């Protein structure tokens, strides 16, 4: 799977290309590590498994785990690189096109990391996760923290993102479908988080003309696509692997992180007596 590591697909072989890619990789690893205590002995669905390394990472703790993704390339990569008796991968259609190919109440836990921001029909996406969750089941959703990536009025500068969420917005959206919603923040030491905070600050200013609230979405996407092509062509790639001086233990997930770059939410399937 020859692809540059991006916020959309983290390829484990490429994560040391630079400190920004490395930090994003660590955020993914930390989120999967955070989920470990919730998946022990459970039937788990990893909705949006990407290249599959995170699904494989937690598979030893699960009774069964299935990674699903809309990308043929991603599923092929995951299936060929990560194997275990209780682990499988499956190609699916987008949430807007078809329901998930599983019966009701199939899973105890559904994970979905860095997916919700890509979804056009969020209602269909969340309804399907709720449908395949067993009674009392847990959903864990991770997504970038809008509050540190965008101005309050700004549309996403990431061409693949339909919308991004603040802590309050994500809480409100998930509360429509699930109960006991708790949205945590992903952060850490200021000097480490500044790697991502400075990157996103540059992008939100530089791409502001394309992401104003009154900019038609077609123009936004076309402009962002053009800027990405220019960047891929003219921005030089690192020649040597980046040698980090920090690791996943420096990434913290809690309700009081000051320098937040990502949100991690937990919620339960609603029961008949829930408000």
CATH topology: Rossmann fold
Helix content: 25-40%
Biggest sheet overview: 8 strands, mixed
Number of domains: 1
What strand order characterises the main sheet? Answer: 3-2-1-4-5-8-6-7
Q: Give the overall average pLDDT.
A: 91
CATH architecture grouping? 3-Layer(aba) Sandwich
The ordered string of helix (H) and strand (E) elements is HEHEHEEHEHHEHHEE
Number of helical segments?
8
Number of strands: 8
Name of the CATH homologous superfamily: Vaccinia Virus protein VP39
Shape assignment:
globular
Radius of gyration, taken over Cα atoms and rounded to an integer in Å: 18 Å
Distance between the termini: 46 Å
Low-confidence parts: 1-7
Can you tell me the CATH class? Alpha Beta
Proportion of beta-strand residues: 15-25%
- Which class best fits the helix and strand makeup? alpha/beta
Task: Compile the SSE list and pairings.
Elements: H1 19-39, E1 43-47, H2 53-59, E2 64-69, H3 72-81, E3 87-91, E4 107-113, H4 122-132, E5 133-144, H5 146-149, H6 167-175, E6 178-188, H7 190-206, H8 217-234, E7 251-254, E8 262-269
Parallel strand pairs: 1-2, 1-4, 2-3, 4-5
Antiparallel strand pairs: 5-8, 6-7, 6-8
Helix pairs in contact: 1-2, 1-7
Offer a quick outline of the entry.
Helices cover about 35% and strands about 20% of the residues. The chain is an alpha/beta fold and about 280 residues long. The protein has an 8-stranded mixed sheet with strand order 3-2-1-4-5-8-6-7.
């Amino acid at each position: 799977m020859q692809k540059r590591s991006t916020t959309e697909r983290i390829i484990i072989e490429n994560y040391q290309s630079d400190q920004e890619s490395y930090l994003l990789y660590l955020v993914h690893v930390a989120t999967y590590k955070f989920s470990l205590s919730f998946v022990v002995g459970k039937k788990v669905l990893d909705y949006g498994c990407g290249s599959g390394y995170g699904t494989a990472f937690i598979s030893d703790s699960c009774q069964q785990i299935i990674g699903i993704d809309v990308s043929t390339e991603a599923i092929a990569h995951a299936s060929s690189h990560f194997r275990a008796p209780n682990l499988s991968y499956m190609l699916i259609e987008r949430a807007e096109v078809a329901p998930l190919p599983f019966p009701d109440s199939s899973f105890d836990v559904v994970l979905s990391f860095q997916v919700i921001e890509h979804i056009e029909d969020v209602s269909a996406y969340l309804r399907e996760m709720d449908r395949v969750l067993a009674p009392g089941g847990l959903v864990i959703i991770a997504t970038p923290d809008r509050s540190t990536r965008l101005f309050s009025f700004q549309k996403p500068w990431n061409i693949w993102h339909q919308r991004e969420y603040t802590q309050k917005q994500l809480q409100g959206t998930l509360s429509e479908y699930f109960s006991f919603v708790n949205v945590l923040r992903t952060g850490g030491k200021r000097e480490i988080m500044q790697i991502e905070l400075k990157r996103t600050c540059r992008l939100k200013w530089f791409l502001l003309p394309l992401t104003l609230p009154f900019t038609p979405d077609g123009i936004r996407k076309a402009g962002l696509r053009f800027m990405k092509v220019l960047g891929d062509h003219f921005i030089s790639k690192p020649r040597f692997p980046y040698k980090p001086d920090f690791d996943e233990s420096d990434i913290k997930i809690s309700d009081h992180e000051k320098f937040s770059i990502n949100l991690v939410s937990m919620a339960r399937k609603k029961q008949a007596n829930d408000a």
